[in-house]
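Recall the central idea of this unit: under ordinary conditions, the amino acid sequence of a chain determines the structure it adopts. In this exercise we apply that idea directly, starting from the sequence alone.
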Amino acid sequence: DNHAHMTPDLRVLIVSDNLLTRAGLAALLDTQDDILVVGQITTGTLPEELALYRADMIVCDLGWQANDSIETLSQIDNKDIPILVLLTDENDSASLLNILNQFPVYGLLLNENDSDMLMIALQTVANGLIVIDPNLSSYIATSSPITETITEDLTQRENEVLQLLAQGLTNKAIALQLGITDHTVKFHVNAIMTKLNAQSRTEAVIIATRAGLIIL
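Accordingly, the structure predicted from this sequence is:
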Protein backbone atom coordinates (compact mmCIF):
# COMPACT_ATOMS: atom_id res chain seq x y z
CA ASP A 1 0.00 0.00 0.00
CA ASN A 2 1.89 3.03 -1.31
CA HIS A 3 -0.51 5.41 0.32
CA ALA A 4 0.69 4.42 3.77
CA HIS A 5 4.19 5.62 3.00
CA MET A 6 3.01 9.00 1.82
CA THR A 7 1.15 10.05 4.92
CA PRO A 8 3.07 9.93 8.18
CA ASP A 9 1.18 8.36 11.05
CA LEU A 10 -1.05 10.55 13.15
CA ARG A 11 0.64 10.77 16.54
CA VAL A 12 -2.04 10.48 19.21
CA LEU A 13 -1.59 11.01 22.95
CA ILE A 14 -4.16 9.23 25.11
CA VAL A 15 -5.20 10.94 28.33
CA SER A 16 -7.40 9.49 31.05
CA ASP A 17 -7.26 9.07 34.81
CA ASN A 18 -8.60 5.56 34.44
CA LEU A 19 -6.01 2.92 33.58
CA LEU A 20 -8.55 0.62 31.89
CA THR A 21 -9.92 3.47 29.80
CA ARG A 22 -6.40 4.36 28.64
CA ALA A 23 -5.65 0.75 27.79
CA GLY A 24 -8.94 0.34 25.96
CA LEU A 25 -8.41 3.47 23.87
CA ALA A 26 -4.83 2.47 23.10
CA ALA A 27 -5.93 -1.01 22.00
CA LEU A 28 -8.59 0.48 19.76
CA LEU A 29 -6.32 3.08 18.16
CA ASP A 30 -3.52 0.56 17.66
CA THR A 31 -5.76 -1.35 15.27
CA GLN A 32 -5.68 1.62 12.90
CA ASP A 33 -2.93 1.63 10.29
CA ASP A 34 -2.38 5.35 10.21
CA ILE A 35 -2.45 6.05 13.94
CA LEU A 36 0.50 5.85 16.28
CA VAL A 37 -0.23 5.99 20.01
CA VAL A 38 2.71 7.97 21.41
CA GLY A 39 1.75 7.80 25.08
CA GLN A 40 -0.88 7.17 27.75
CA ILE A 41 -0.98 9.65 30.62
CA THR A 42 -3.30 10.98 33.34
CA THR A 43 -5.03 14.34 32.99
CA GLY A 44 -3.03 15.82 35.86
CA THR A 45 0.29 15.39 34.05
CA LEU A 46 -1.00 16.55 30.67
CA PRO A 47 -0.03 20.25 30.84
CA GLU A 48 3.57 19.46 31.83
CA GLU A 49 4.13 16.38 29.69
CA LEU A 50 2.40 17.29 26.44
CA ALA A 51 5.54 18.64 24.78
CA LEU A 52 7.49 15.44 25.51
CA TYR A 53 5.26 13.33 23.31
CA ARG A 54 5.27 15.54 20.21
CA ALA A 55 1.68 14.42 19.60
CA ASP A 56 -0.38 15.60 16.63
CA MET A 57 -3.54 15.38 18.66
CA ILE A 58 -4.90 14.49 22.10
CA VAL A 59 -7.69 12.02 22.82
CA CYS A 60 -8.86 12.68 26.35
CA ASP A 61 -11.46 10.58 28.16
CA LEU A 62 -12.72 12.48 31.18
CA GLY A 63 -15.12 9.75 32.32
CA TRP A 64 -17.35 10.61 35.27
CA GLN A 65 -14.86 12.86 37.02
CA ALA A 66 -14.90 15.47 34.28
CA ASN A 67 -15.14 18.40 36.67
CA ASP A 68 -11.85 17.54 38.31
CA SER A 69 -10.08 17.57 34.96
CA ILE A 70 -11.82 20.37 33.10
CA GLU A 71 -9.60 22.97 34.73
CA THR A 72 -6.48 21.04 33.68
CA LEU A 73 -7.43 21.29 30.02
CA SER A 74 -7.37 25.07 30.22
CA GLN A 75 -3.76 24.90 31.43
CA ILE A 76 -2.48 23.31 28.22
CA ASP A 77 0.06 25.69 26.69
CA ASN A 78 -0.20 24.51 23.13
CA LYS A 79 -3.79 25.37 22.29
CA ASP A 80 -3.14 24.71 18.60
CA ILE A 81 -3.12 20.97 19.12
CA PRO A 82 -6.44 19.35 18.16
CA ILE A 83 -8.15 17.70 21.11
CA LEU A 84 -10.93 15.13 21.15
CA VAL A 85 -12.64 14.89 24.52
CA LEU A 86 -14.90 12.02 25.58
CA LEU A 87 -17.18 12.46 28.53
CA THR A 88 -19.67 10.26 30.33
CA ASP A 89 -21.94 12.79 31.98
CA GLU A 90 -23.50 15.15 29.46
CA ASN A 91 -24.15 17.70 32.20
CA ASP A 92 -20.46 18.51 32.11
CA SER A 93 -20.58 19.47 28.47
CA ALA A 94 -21.43 23.16 28.89
CA SER A 95 -18.41 23.93 31.06
CA LEU A 96 -16.28 21.73 28.86
CA LEU A 97 -17.31 23.53 25.69
CA ASN A 98 -16.30 26.83 27.28
CA ILE A 99 -12.78 25.56 27.69
CA LEU A 100 -12.65 23.73 24.37
CA ASN A 101 -13.57 26.99 22.66
CA GLN A 102 -10.02 28.12 23.43
CA PHE A 103 -8.78 25.42 21.04
CA PRO A 104 -9.17 26.21 17.33
CA VAL A 105 -9.96 22.53 16.66
CA TYR A 106 -11.68 20.13 19.02
CA GLY A 107 -14.24 17.39 19.34
CA LEU A 108 -16.62 16.52 22.15
CA LEU A 109 -18.25 13.09 22.23
CA LEU A 110 -20.22 11.12 24.75
CA ASN A 111 -18.18 8.00 25.27
CA GLU A 112 -21.13 5.70 24.79
CA ASN A 113 -20.48 5.96 21.07
CA ASP A 114 -19.22 2.91 19.25
CA SER A 115 -15.65 2.70 18.06
CA ASP A 116 -16.55 3.57 14.44
CA MET A 117 -18.05 6.84 15.59
CA LEU A 118 -14.96 7.52 17.68
CA MET A 119 -12.65 6.86 14.71
CA ILE A 120 -14.68 9.15 12.45
CA ALA A 121 -14.63 11.87 15.10
CA LEU A 122 -10.90 11.43 15.58
CA GLN A 123 -10.15 11.66 11.85
CA THR A 124 -12.47 14.64 11.49
CA VAL A 125 -10.78 16.53 14.31
CA ALA A 126 -7.36 15.53 12.93
CA ASN A 127 -8.47 17.09 9.63
CA GLY A 128 -9.10 20.40 11.34
CA LEU A 129 -12.86 20.27 11.83
CA ILE A 130 -14.88 20.62 15.01
CA VAL A 131 -17.01 17.65 16.06
CA ILE A 132 -19.79 17.80 18.60
CA ASP A 133 -21.93 14.84 19.59
CA PRO A 134 -25.49 15.46 18.32
CA ASN A 135 -26.75 14.51 21.79
CA LEU A 136 -24.93 17.51 23.19
CA SER A 137 -26.21 20.05 20.69
CA SER A 138 -28.79 21.35 23.16
CA TYR A 139 -25.93 22.30 25.50
CA ILE A 140 -24.28 24.54 22.98
CA ALA A 141 -25.39 27.96 24.06
CA THR A 142 -25.77 30.38 21.17
CA SER A 143 -26.11 33.89 22.48
CA SER A 144 -25.64 35.59 19.12
CA PRO A 145 -28.21 35.38 16.33
CA ILE A 146 -28.08 32.10 14.46
CA THR A 147 -26.94 33.67 11.18
CA GLU A 148 -23.73 34.88 12.78
CA THR A 149 -22.87 31.67 14.57
CA ILE A 150 -23.30 29.66 11.41
CA THR A 151 -21.44 31.94 9.04
CA GLU A 152 -18.55 32.16 11.39
CA ASP A 153 -18.31 28.42 11.85
CA LEU A 154 -18.14 27.19 8.28
CA THR A 155 -14.69 27.10 6.77
CA GLN A 156 -14.17 28.38 3.26
CA ARG A 157 -14.08 24.81 1.94
CA GLU A 158 -17.28 23.89 3.75
CA ASN A 159 -18.93 26.93 2.25
CA GLU A 160 -17.90 25.80 -1.23
CA VAL A 161 -19.32 22.34 -0.53
CA LEU A 162 -22.50 23.90 0.85
CA GLN A 163 -23.09 25.95 -2.32
CA LEU A 164 -22.74 22.81 -4.45
CA LEU A 165 -24.99 20.85 -2.09
CA ALA A 166 -27.58 23.55 -2.57
CA GLN A 167 -27.38 22.95 -6.32
CA GLY A 168 -28.34 19.35 -5.61
CA LEU A 169 -24.99 17.84 -6.56
CA THR A 170 -24.03 14.41 -5.26
CA ASN A 171 -20.90 13.86 -3.18
CA LYS A 172 -19.20 12.42 -6.24
CA ALA A 173 -20.05 15.45 -8.35
CA ILE A 174 -18.90 17.82 -5.60
CA ALA A 175 -15.65 15.87 -5.27
CA LEU A 176 -14.98 16.17 -9.01
CA GLN A 177 -15.79 19.85 -9.08
CA LEU A 178 -13.55 20.71 -6.11
CA GLY A 179 -10.82 18.22 -6.96
CA ILE A 180 -11.04 16.39 -3.64
CA THR A 181 -11.98 12.81 -2.73
CA ASP A 182 -15.52 11.57 -2.06
CA HIS A 183 -14.30 10.76 1.43
CA THR A 184 -13.28 14.36 2.08
CA VAL A 185 -16.60 15.62 0.73
CA LYS A 186 -18.39 13.31 3.14
CA PHE A 187 -16.40 14.79 6.04
CA HIS A 188 -17.25 18.33 4.93
CA VAL A 189 -20.95 17.47 4.53
CA ASN A 190 -21.00 15.89 7.99
CA ALA A 191 -19.26 18.92 9.42
CA ILE A 192 -21.76 21.24 7.74
CA MET A 193 -24.68 19.20 9.09
CA THR A 194 -23.15 19.23 12.56
CA LYS A 195 -22.54 22.98 12.50
CA LEU A 196 -25.99 23.78 11.16
CA ASN A 197 -27.52 21.23 13.53
CA ALA A 198 -29.22 19.58 10.57
CA GLN A 199 -30.29 15.94 10.44
CA SER A 200 -30.00 15.66 6.67
CA ARG A 201 -28.36 17.32 3.69
CA THR A 202 -31.69 18.80 2.67
CA GLU A 203 -32.28 20.26 6.10
CA ALA A 204 -28.74 21.68 6.06
CA VAL A 205 -29.49 23.48 2.81
CA ILE A 206 -32.81 24.81 4.15
CA ILE A 207 -31.20 26.10 7.36
CA ALA A 208 -28.29 27.61 5.45
CA THR A 209 -30.67 29.32 3.00
CA ARG A 210 -32.61 30.84 5.91
CA ALA A 211 -29.38 32.00 7.45
CA GLY A 212 -28.39 33.67 4.19
CA LEU A 213 -25.43 31.37 3.60
CA ILE A 214 -26.52 30.08 0.20
CA ILE A 215 -25.66 32.30 -2.72
CA LEU A 216 -28.49 31.55 -5.11
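The CA atoms of residues 7 and 98 lie 33 Å apart.
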